[in-house]
Amino acid sequence: MFQEHYVLPIDKTGWQTADRRGEAVFNWDYDMHRERLLRLYSQGKRRQWDAQVRIDWSLPAYASSPEVDDAIGLAGSNLWTRLSESTREEVRLHLMAWQFSQFLHGEQGALICASKIVQTVPQMDAKFYAATQVMDEARHVEVYSTYLDTLKVAYPINQHLKSLLDDVLSDNRWDITFLGMQVLIEGLALAAFGLVRNNTSIDLVRDLTAYVMADEARHVAFGRVALRDLYPQLSERERAEREEFCAEACLVMRDRFLAQEVWEHFGFDVQECNEHLNHSESQKIFRSLLFHRIVPTIKDIGLWSPKMRDTFAKMGVLEFADTDLGSIEAEDNAFADHIDELRRSQVAATIALGDDS
Protein backbone atom coordinates (compact mmCIF):
# COMPACT_ATOMS: atom_id res chain seq x y z
CA MET A 1 0.00 0.00 0.00
CA PHE A 2 1.29 3.42 -0.94
CA GLN A 3 0.77 4.88 2.53
CA GLU A 4 3.34 2.45 3.95
CA HIS A 5 6.04 4.30 2.01
CA TYR A 6 5.46 7.50 3.94
CA VAL A 7 8.10 8.20 6.57
CA LEU A 8 5.45 9.72 8.87
CA PRO A 9 1.78 8.67 9.24
CA ILE A 10 -0.80 10.46 7.13
CA ASP A 11 -4.39 11.39 7.84
CA LYS A 12 -6.37 8.90 5.74
CA THR A 13 -9.42 11.16 5.71
CA GLY A 14 -7.54 13.70 3.62
CA TRP A 15 -7.36 17.44 4.09
CA GLN A 16 -9.97 20.04 3.31
CA THR A 17 -9.73 23.78 2.75
CA ALA A 18 -9.79 25.77 5.95
CA ASP A 19 -13.36 27.06 5.66
CA ARG A 20 -14.69 23.47 5.37
CA ARG A 21 -17.19 24.45 2.69
CA GLY A 22 -15.97 21.79 0.28
CA GLU A 23 -14.29 23.91 -2.39
CA ALA A 24 -11.41 21.43 -2.52
CA VAL A 25 -10.55 18.20 -0.73
CA PHE A 26 -6.97 16.90 -0.82
CA ASN A 27 -6.16 13.26 -0.09
CA TRP A 28 -2.62 12.16 0.57
CA ASP A 29 -3.54 8.46 0.50
CA TYR A 30 -2.98 7.36 -3.09
CA ASP A 31 -4.10 3.74 -2.57
CA MET A 32 -7.13 2.88 -4.67
CA HIS A 33 -9.28 -0.12 -3.82
CA ARG A 34 -12.44 0.05 -5.93
CA GLU A 35 -11.83 -2.17 -8.94
CA ARG A 36 -14.95 -1.04 -10.80
CA LEU A 37 -13.92 2.63 -10.60
CA LEU A 38 -10.41 1.81 -11.77
CA ARG A 39 -11.84 -0.10 -14.74
CA LEU A 40 -13.97 2.93 -15.60
CA TYR A 41 -10.89 5.14 -15.33
CA SER A 42 -9.00 2.80 -17.67
CA GLN A 43 -11.90 2.91 -20.15
CA GLY A 44 -12.04 6.69 -19.84
CA LYS A 45 -8.38 6.92 -20.87
CA ARG A 46 -8.61 4.42 -23.72
CA ARG A 47 -11.81 5.79 -25.24
CA GLN A 48 -10.81 9.44 -25.59
CA TRP A 49 -11.48 10.79 -29.09
CA ASP A 50 -11.12 13.93 -31.16
CA ALA A 51 -14.43 15.35 -32.36
CA GLN A 52 -12.83 17.02 -35.37
CA VAL A 53 -11.34 13.69 -36.51
CA ARG A 54 -13.87 11.05 -35.51
CA ILE A 55 -16.97 12.90 -36.76
CA ASP A 56 -17.47 13.51 -40.48
CA TRP A 57 -18.62 17.14 -40.38
CA SER A 58 -19.03 17.18 -44.16
CA LEU A 59 -22.25 15.15 -43.80
CA PRO A 60 -25.55 17.09 -44.10
CA ALA A 61 -26.50 18.55 -40.72
CA TYR A 62 -30.24 18.63 -41.19
CA ALA A 63 -32.98 17.18 -43.35
CA SER A 64 -36.63 17.96 -42.66
CA SER A 65 -39.22 15.26 -43.09
CA PRO A 66 -42.92 15.03 -42.22
CA GLU A 67 -42.15 11.51 -41.01
CA VAL A 68 -40.73 12.99 -37.77
CA ASP A 69 -44.00 14.73 -36.94
CA ASP A 70 -45.13 11.83 -34.74
CA ALA A 71 -42.35 12.80 -32.34
CA ILE A 72 -43.51 16.43 -32.26
CA GLY A 73 -45.92 16.92 -29.41
CA LEU A 74 -48.09 19.36 -31.35
CA ALA A 75 -48.61 17.04 -34.31
CA GLY A 76 -52.31 16.32 -34.64
CA SER A 77 -53.39 19.42 -32.74
CA ASN A 78 -55.69 22.05 -34.23
CA LEU A 79 -52.79 24.50 -34.16
CA TRP A 80 -50.54 22.14 -36.15
CA THR A 81 -53.15 21.49 -38.82
CA ARG A 82 -53.63 25.24 -39.30
CA LEU A 83 -49.94 25.79 -40.12
CA SER A 84 -48.67 25.97 -43.68
CA GLU A 85 -46.12 23.35 -44.73
CA SER A 86 -43.38 26.01 -44.91
CA THR A 87 -44.08 27.02 -41.30
CA ARG A 88 -44.08 23.39 -40.19
CA GLU A 89 -40.71 23.02 -41.89
CA GLU A 90 -39.36 25.94 -39.89
CA VAL A 91 -40.86 24.62 -36.65
CA ARG A 92 -39.15 21.25 -37.18
CA LEU A 93 -35.79 22.97 -37.56
CA HIS A 94 -36.33 25.11 -34.48
CA LEU A 95 -37.41 22.15 -32.37
CA MET A 96 -34.22 20.32 -33.25
CA ALA A 97 -32.18 23.45 -32.53
CA TRP A 98 -33.98 23.86 -29.20
CA GLN A 99 -33.35 20.25 -28.22
CA PHE A 100 -29.67 20.34 -29.16
CA SER A 101 -29.28 23.72 -27.43
CA GLN A 102 -30.47 22.10 -24.19
CA PHE A 103 -28.02 19.25 -24.79
CA LEU A 104 -25.26 21.86 -25.19
CA HIS A 105 -26.17 23.75 -22.01
CA GLY A 106 -26.48 20.51 -20.07
CA GLU A 107 -23.02 19.44 -21.24
CA GLN A 108 -21.51 22.70 -20.03
CA GLY A 109 -23.21 22.10 -16.70
CA ALA A 110 -21.71 18.61 -16.67
CA LEU A 111 -18.27 20.08 -17.45
CA ILE A 112 -18.49 22.38 -14.43
CA CYS A 113 -19.87 19.60 -12.21
CA ALA A 114 -17.13 17.17 -13.24
CA SER A 115 -14.44 19.72 -12.39
CA LYS A 116 -16.18 20.31 -9.06
CA ILE A 117 -16.15 16.56 -8.39
CA VAL A 118 -12.38 16.45 -8.94
CA GLN A 119 -12.06 19.12 -6.26
CA THR A 120 -14.52 17.86 -3.69
CA VAL A 121 -14.79 14.06 -3.83
CA PRO A 122 -12.57 12.60 -1.06
CA GLN A 123 -11.46 9.34 -2.74
CA MET A 124 -8.47 9.38 -5.08
CA ASP A 125 -9.89 6.79 -7.50
CA ALA A 126 -12.96 8.99 -7.98
CA LYS A 127 -10.76 12.03 -8.62
CA PHE A 128 -8.89 10.06 -11.29
CA TYR A 129 -12.04 9.06 -13.14
CA ALA A 130 -13.65 12.50 -12.79
CA ALA A 131 -10.59 13.99 -14.49
CA THR A 132 -11.33 11.91 -17.61
CA GLN A 133 -14.93 13.09 -17.47
CA VAL A 134 -13.82 16.73 -17.52
CA MET A 135 -12.19 16.06 -20.88
CA ASP A 136 -15.25 14.15 -22.10
CA GLU A 137 -17.61 17.00 -21.20
CA ALA A 138 -15.40 19.61 -22.85
CA ARG A 139 -15.50 17.51 -26.02
CA HIS A 140 -19.30 17.25 -25.82
CA VAL A 141 -19.62 21.02 -25.51
CA GLU A 142 -17.43 21.28 -28.60
CA VAL A 143 -19.56 18.72 -30.48
CA TYR A 144 -22.91 20.35 -29.78
CA SER A 145 -21.73 23.91 -30.29
CA THR A 146 -20.19 22.89 -33.63
CA TYR A 147 -23.41 21.20 -34.67
CA LEU A 148 -25.56 24.18 -33.71
CA ASP A 149 -23.24 26.42 -35.70
CA THR A 150 -24.20 24.42 -38.78
CA LEU A 151 -27.92 24.90 -38.05
CA LYS A 152 -27.42 28.63 -37.45
CA VAL A 153 -30.22 28.53 -34.87
CA ALA A 154 -29.80 28.21 -31.09
CA TYR A 155 -31.86 28.72 -27.95
CA PRO A 156 -30.97 29.84 -24.40
CA ILE A 157 -31.08 27.41 -21.50
CA ASN A 158 -34.53 26.16 -20.51
CA GLN A 159 -35.67 27.43 -17.10
CA HIS A 160 -36.21 23.90 -15.71
CA LEU A 161 -32.70 22.77 -16.62
CA LYS A 162 -31.25 26.01 -15.26
CA SER A 163 -33.10 25.54 -11.98
CA LEU A 164 -31.76 22.02 -11.53
CA LEU A 165 -28.19 23.04 -12.40
CA ASP A 166 -28.44 25.89 -9.89
CA ASP A 167 -29.48 23.42 -7.17
CA VAL A 168 -26.70 20.97 -8.00
CA LEU A 169 -23.92 23.55 -8.23
CA SER A 170 -24.92 25.53 -5.14
CA ASP A 171 -24.87 22.49 -2.82
CA ASN A 172 -21.48 21.91 -1.19
CA ARG A 173 -22.02 18.19 -0.52
CA TRP A 174 -20.05 16.22 -3.09
CA ASP A 175 -22.58 13.41 -3.28
CA ILE A 176 -25.34 15.85 -4.31
CA THR A 177 -23.18 16.83 -7.29
CA PHE A 178 -22.96 13.14 -8.19
CA LEU A 179 -26.66 12.56 -7.62
CA GLY A 180 -27.83 15.62 -9.51
CA MET A 181 -25.47 15.40 -12.46
CA GLN A 182 -24.20 11.82 -12.85
CA VAL A 183 -27.48 10.12 -12.01
CA LEU A 184 -30.32 12.53 -12.81
CA ILE A 185 -29.20 14.97 -15.52
CA GLU A 186 -26.87 12.53 -17.29
CA GLY A 187 -29.41 9.72 -16.96
CA LEU A 188 -32.12 11.83 -18.52
CA ALA A 189 -29.77 13.05 -21.24
CA LEU A 190 -28.76 9.48 -22.09
CA ALA A 191 -32.38 8.48 -22.57
CA ALA A 192 -33.04 11.54 -24.76
CA PHE A 193 -29.85 10.85 -26.73
CA GLY A 194 -30.98 7.25 -27.25
CA LEU A 195 -34.31 8.34 -28.71
CA VAL A 196 -32.47 10.68 -31.09
CA ARG A 197 -29.83 8.12 -32.05
CA ASN A 198 -32.32 5.34 -32.73
CA ASN A 199 -34.86 7.38 -34.67
CA THR A 200 -33.00 10.03 -36.66
CA SER A 201 -32.57 9.73 -40.42
CA ILE A 202 -29.64 12.21 -40.35
CA ASP A 203 -26.31 10.34 -40.37
CA LEU A 204 -24.37 13.19 -38.75
CA VAL A 205 -26.85 13.42 -35.88
CA ARG A 206 -26.80 9.64 -35.40
CA ASP A 207 -23.00 9.50 -35.36
CA LEU A 208 -22.26 12.37 -32.99
CA THR A 209 -25.04 11.23 -30.64
CA ALA A 210 -23.74 7.67 -30.54
CA TYR A 211 -20.21 8.82 -29.74
CA VAL A 212 -21.38 11.12 -26.95
CA MET A 213 -23.58 8.36 -25.51
CA ALA A 214 -20.67 5.96 -25.17
CA ASP A 215 -18.96 8.53 -22.93
CA GLU A 216 -22.09 9.36 -20.97
CA ALA A 217 -22.81 5.72 -20.16
CA ARG A 218 -19.49 5.60 -18.28
CA HIS A 219 -20.38 8.78 -16.41
CA VAL A 220 -23.65 7.35 -15.12
CA ALA A 221 -21.83 4.14 -14.13
CA PHE A 222 -19.30 6.30 -12.24
CA GLY A 223 -22.08 7.93 -10.23
CA ARG A 224 -23.63 4.56 -9.45
CA VAL A 225 -20.39 3.08 -8.14
CA ALA A 226 -19.50 6.09 -5.99
CA LEU A 227 -22.96 6.53 -4.46
CA ARG A 228 -23.64 2.82 -4.00
CA ASP A 229 -20.67 2.73 -1.63
CA LEU A 230 -21.73 5.87 0.26
CA TYR A 231 -25.49 5.75 0.74
CA PRO A 232 -25.69 2.62 2.94
CA GLN A 233 -23.50 4.54 5.43
CA LEU A 234 -25.88 7.52 5.70
CA SER A 235 -28.51 7.95 8.37
CA GLU A 236 -32.17 7.47 7.53
CA ARG A 237 -32.67 11.24 7.70
CA GLU A 238 -29.78 11.88 5.29
CA ARG A 239 -31.11 9.32 2.79
CA ALA A 240 -34.58 10.88 3.07
CA GLU A 241 -33.07 14.27 2.14
CA ARG A 242 -31.52 12.75 -0.97
CA GLU A 243 -34.77 11.06 -1.92
CA GLU A 244 -36.66 14.33 -1.57
CA PHE A 245 -34.09 15.97 -3.84
CA CYS A 246 -34.49 13.16 -6.40
CA ALA A 247 -38.29 13.29 -6.34
CA GLU A 248 -38.41 17.05 -6.88
CA ALA A 249 -35.72 16.93 -9.59
CA CYS A 250 -37.53 14.18 -11.52
CA LEU A 251 -40.74 16.20 -11.54
CA VAL A 252 -38.83 19.25 -12.77
CA MET A 253 -37.15 17.24 -15.53
CA ARG A 254 -40.42 15.66 -16.59
CA ASP A 255 -41.68 19.16 -17.42
CA ARG A 256 -38.43 20.22 -19.09
CA PHE A 257 -39.33 19.12 -22.61
CA LEU A 258 -42.34 21.32 -23.36
CA ALA A 259 -40.17 23.56 -25.59
CA GLN A 260 -42.22 26.63 -24.74
CA GLU A 261 -39.39 28.86 -25.95
CA VAL A 262 -40.07 27.59 -29.48
CA TRP A 263 -43.79 28.28 -29.22
CA GLU A 264 -43.03 31.79 -27.94
CA HIS A 265 -40.66 32.43 -30.87
CA PHE A 266 -43.40 31.58 -33.38
CA GLY A 267 -46.03 33.56 -31.51
CA PHE A 268 -48.13 30.48 -30.71
CA ASP A 269 -50.49 30.42 -27.74
CA VAL A 270 -48.14 28.84 -25.17
CA GLN A 271 -50.98 27.82 -22.87
CA GLU A 272 -52.74 26.06 -25.75
CA CYS A 273 -49.51 24.30 -26.71
CA ASN A 274 -48.80 23.17 -23.16
CA GLU A 275 -52.36 21.95 -22.71
CA HIS A 276 -52.10 19.80 -25.82
CA LEU A 277 -48.66 18.47 -24.84
CA ASN A 278 -49.78 17.53 -21.35
CA HIS A 279 -52.56 15.37 -22.82
CA SER A 280 -50.70 14.04 -25.86
CA GLU A 281 -50.25 10.25 -25.74
CA SER A 282 -47.06 10.40 -27.80
CA GLN A 283 -45.64 13.00 -25.41
CA LYS A 284 -46.58 10.92 -22.36
CA ILE A 285 -44.76 7.92 -23.83
CA PHE A 286 -41.77 10.10 -24.73
CA ARG A 287 -41.51 11.55 -21.24
CA SER A 288 -41.85 8.19 -19.54
CA LEU A 289 -39.07 6.68 -21.69
CA LEU A 290 -36.77 9.47 -20.54
CA PHE A 291 -36.64 7.85 -17.10
CA HIS A 292 -35.80 4.29 -18.08
CA ARG A 293 -32.17 4.76 -17.00
CA ILE A 294 -32.78 6.95 -13.97
CA VAL A 295 -35.22 4.62 -12.17
CA PRO A 296 -32.96 1.51 -12.04
CA THR A 297 -29.99 3.69 -11.07
CA ILE A 298 -31.86 5.20 -8.13
CA LYS A 299 -32.79 1.68 -7.05
CA ASP A 300 -29.21 0.46 -7.45
CA ILE A 301 -27.67 3.17 -5.26
CA GLY A 302 -30.07 2.45 -2.41
CA LEU A 303 -32.54 5.35 -2.53
CA TRP A 304 -35.48 3.00 -2.80
CA SER A 305 -37.87 3.81 0.04
CA PRO A 306 -41.67 3.59 -0.34
CA LYS A 307 -41.66 7.36 -0.97
CA MET A 308 -39.30 7.03 -3.93
CA ARG A 309 -41.19 4.07 -5.36
CA ASP A 310 -44.48 5.95 -4.94
CA THR A 311 -43.05 8.96 -6.81
CA PHE A 312 -42.03 6.79 -9.76
CA ALA A 313 -45.35 4.94 -9.69
CA LYS A 314 -47.26 8.23 -9.94
CA MET A 315 -45.04 9.23 -12.86
CA GLY A 316 -45.80 5.92 -14.56
CA VAL A 317 -42.15 4.83 -14.75
CA LEU A 318 -41.80 2.29 -11.92
CA GLU A 319 -41.75 -0.51 -14.50
CA PHE A 320 -38.17 0.50 -15.43
CA ALA A 321 -36.82 -0.46 -11.98
CA ASP A 322 -35.36 -3.80 -13.14
CA THR A 323 -33.71 -2.52 -16.32
CA ASP A 324 -30.26 -4.10 -16.85
CA LEU A 325 -27.99 -1.04 -16.85
CA GLY A 326 -24.87 -3.05 -17.66
CA SER A 327 -26.43 -4.34 -20.87
CA ILE A 328 -27.50 -0.84 -21.91
CA GLU A 329 -23.98 0.50 -21.34
CA ALA A 330 -22.53 -2.33 -23.45
CA GLU A 331 -25.04 -1.57 -26.23
CA ASP A 332 -24.06 2.11 -26.21
CA ASN A 333 -20.40 1.23 -26.68
CA ALA A 334 -21.20 -1.36 -29.35
CA PHE A 335 -23.32 1.13 -31.31
CA ALA A 336 -20.47 3.68 -31.40
CA ASP A 337 -17.95 0.98 -32.36
CA HIS A 338 -20.26 -0.20 -35.15
CA ILE A 339 -20.35 3.30 -36.65
CA ASP A 340 -16.55 3.44 -36.54
CA GLU A 341 -16.34 0.06 -38.27
CA LEU A 342 -18.85 1.17 -40.88
CA ARG A 343 -16.82 4.30 -41.64
CA ARG A 344 -13.59 2.28 -41.91
CA SER A 345 -15.31 -0.09 -44.36
CA GLN A 346 -16.55 2.83 -46.44
CA VAL A 347 -13.07 4.36 -46.56
CA ALA A 348 -11.54 1.02 -47.53
CA ALA A 349 -14.13 0.56 -50.29
CA THR A 350 -13.43 4.03 -51.65
CA ILE A 351 -9.66 3.37 -51.67
CA ALA A 352 -10.21 0.02 -53.40
CA LEU A 353 -12.39 1.69 -56.03
CA GLY A 354 -9.63 4.19 -56.70
CA ASP A 355 -7.05 1.42 -57.04
CA ASP A 356 -9.25 -0.44 -59.54
CA SER A 357 -9.57 2.62 -61.72
Structure commentary:
- This protein has 357 residues and is mostly helical.
- The protein has 2 domains: 1-31, no CATH class; 35-356, Orthogonal Bundle (Ribonucleotide Reductase, subunit A).
- 68% of the residues lie in helices and 1% in strands.
- The chain is built from 15 helices and 2 strands.
- It has helices at 35-46, 51-54, 78-82, 85-120, 124-151, 159-170, 174-199, 203-230, 236-254, 260-265, 270-279, 281-289, 294-300, 306-315, 325-356; strands at residues 15-16, 25-26.
- A two-stranded antiparallel sheet has the order 1-2.
- Helix 6 (159-170) runs antiparallel to helix 7, helix 7 (174-199) packs antiparallel against helix 8 (203-230) and helix 8 packs antiparallel against helix 15.
- It is globular, with a radius of gyration of 22 Å.
N- and C-termini, Cα separation: 63 Å
Class by SSE composition? mainly alpha
The amount of beta strand, in percent, is under 5%
Q: Oligomerization state of this entry?
A: single chain
**CATH homology superfamily of the largest domain:** Ribonucleotide Reductase, subunit A
Radius of gyration: 22 Å
The residue fraction in helices comes out at 55-70%
Integer count of domains: 2
The CATH architecture of the largest domain comes to Orthogonal Bundle
Strand and helix order:
EEHHHHHHHHHHHHHHH
Number of helices: 15
- Tell me the CATH topology of the largest domain: Ribonucleotide Reductase, subunit A
Strand order across the largest sheet: 1-2
Low-confidence stretches: none
Largest sheet: 2 strands, antiparallel
Shape: globular
